[in-house]
Fold these 2 entries.
Entry 1:
Amino acid sequence: MCSWEIAMGDGNYDRTLREFCIPDYILVPGSEVRSVSHVPACPVIVFINTKSGGQLGGELLVSYSTLLNRNQVFELGKNAPDKVLQKLYATLETLKHNGDNFAAEIQNRLRIIVAGGDGTASWLLGVVSDLKLPQPPPIATVPLGTGNNLPFAFGWGKKNPTTDLQSVETFLNHVKAAKEMKIDSWHIIMRMKAPKEGSCDPIAPLELPHAMHTFNRVSSTDKLNLKGYHTYRGGFWNYFSMGMDAQVSYAFHSERKLHPEKFKNQLYNQSAYLKLGCTQGWFFGSLFQSSLRNIAQLAKVKIMKKGQWEDLHIPRSIKSIVCLNLPSFSGGLNPWGTPNRKKSIYRDLTLPYVDDGLFEVVGFRDAWHGLVLLAPKGHGTRLAQTSRIRFEFHKGAADCTFMRIDGEPWKQPLPKDDDAVVVEISHHDQVSMLATPLCRSKSIYDPSSPSDDREEDDSSEEEPSEDWEERRKFGAAETFKYPDGIDIAQVS
């Protein structure tokens, strides 16, 4: 019996909530099959990361477990989402095979809710992508993190939510009314010759929960593994960034892991992030950092154009580079903006779409440069739109760099004795998100998706002199598969 049937006495309230409830005989293998007269309009499976962001997940867990069948609500960390979904779909397929039409309708209408930060949401997206489920369920995201770029991009907001029963019921009704929208996923592979000394394994900021392990070394049996090389891979849906912004994020996550009791408020978290940006040299790079922090002096960057690799010019002042899939970065800012129509003709730049097989490449000089994003029509330094990018690190340019996938950073050691270090990003697949009417993402296939085609003044587009500073602010799944059609030799 669903827990809401026990806890709630109001008949109207019961009728509302039964639209989301799934009976135990589907959720618990071996349960007695019961006759069900009502098919829920929006059956949901809920995953909650109680350690995310403002740490409100524990309260949400109680609320969802009260309103729904507690067996359809899962705490991440105690329940691996891939195991949960594999078991659920195995049960559904068995019941369907035995002629259970109710189970078939549950599978047709199933939706997933994931509450957590961007890293947690990406983890669930990766799991759904990897499992190749029949009729993969679309996903709605509850913003429990610090930036919450994924929820914001699809209209779910960026502020941590209230956790009372009425608020959760309202969110459930939004999930029922939401429309499906495809989103591209991207695969990252990094390969380097095995260092003669030391380790080049990614260094996470202290110990992180499983949800944050989005970048891992492949196993010895993986087809990507080559003798004498270290190979790593991962995936993203929001963004991949490298440079100073990832370094600040790494410092933030390390500090939060050391003192979790201080990071229970989203406003405090954002303030702490800003302070760390100052101490790490993101605001005053010339005072703290050497020129080797510039991306152009760290790596050569190439993009795929018409089937050929072409060098991408990176201004030597750029200290952070972002490969952006969504129109939201750094807590809701849009660094790509709307390219001037006249310039977009000869530069071949378009509006950013989340399902067009392209991502946007944007550069930032420092945190002051990023303040332009707060201005109307503000944007970063647009570098390219592409379906594939490659970073080739210069020998001895640095002993490490910092990288970040969908909000989850790591410190990446670089071997000193060899220059064969390559990071390559390529298109992987698509998954379905749920979007509200407030969705900011745009679909290339849906003319009704929100769009702002107004041209902007690109007078700030040209790269300024090197000593010029704008006083402005800047704020996968374990089983991620390597995509077909990629020449492995290209990254060896």
Note: Residues 12-177 form a domain with the Rossmann fold fold (CATH 3.40.50).
Entry 2:
Amino acid sequence: MQSRVVPLEDGKERSNHSKGLSLKSLRLFVLFLALCVVFSVISIYTVKHFGIESVVTTVSSTFQPCYEEPVGLEKWIRPPLTLIHNMSDKELLWRASFVPRIKRYPFARVPKIAFMFLTKGPLPLAPLWERFLKEHEDLYSIYIHSLPSYQAQFPPSSVFYNRQIPSQVSEWGKMSMCDAERRLLANALLDISNEWFILLSESCIPLYKFTFIYNYVMKSKYSFVGAFDDPGPYGRGRYNENMAPLVNITKWRKGSQWFEVNRKLAINIVEDTAFYPKFEKYCRPACYVDEHYFPTMLTIQAGNVLANRSITWVDWSRGGAHPATFGRSDITQEFFNRVRGGHTCLYNNRNSSVCVLFARKFAPSTLEPLLNMVDSKVLDF
């Protein structure tokens, strides 16, 4: 009898348990429906009093993208918006060495001159350069390499405003000086419109008006790099036999630090990884690398396109390790007649009496008399 009672009691328990679950599920369902009703009422009230379309419109209209990436060709031909970047020298030189394989430009490219100022700090002759560059904004760019600690104070209206590149300390006669020059070239190469690259110091001045210099440079078949064979102690006497066979003494050259090169040679300079370590290791004072590295390398790589002269005039007549510096009393019409005249050279394989376009070294005290020379049309800016 007991075997029949036990199963009956188990069945009752299962029945009661099922009823409990059904009741609990019903309560949850009712609670869910109530929440849905409340949510619907709140939604209807919100739409009625605030309008969902106006809310969406407000949100979308206040959104502004922080930067709009250019599309199409503009992305590749537009110069950098700022000269400040965080690339290392190795990354910068690699980026600057990019060269289009198709030589014909598919857009209306206006070639520019990149004026590259290598200086420790201020540019005391900046007002003179402002006069020289005025109204030619589409035909030039400016790049300044100064000591990293120097903070320029040019006003926003100046052509020199925000034209400093990320720089490092450079020392005369050492490889760091060539590093600075390559750094200037590499930053200038990022603007695809720059076709010529002119290295200047804070003591340099132009000798002619902008249009004359622009046409002279742009029409030149040759780049202006001094590269001559000096058999004496300050030429071949600085050669180190460890540079062979890459650099033979017969190709060892000396030249002015101040160069004017076209885009093709500028790329040759920044992409070099063969000559650089040789000069860095074996050309140290009393071998002054800034006088030998570029002239020797370019003679070996592209000697047939060098004019073998600089178009930046300096006066070595006083002797010493540095050229003469000119002061206020030197600035006369006779002085400029002497600097610009009395020269003969080859320009595009023809004889020319115009051989220099820039001159140095001019002290800060020369600014006022130089501006007077502009006003009197001796310097026709």
Note: The CA atoms of residues 325 and 361 lie 5 Å apart.
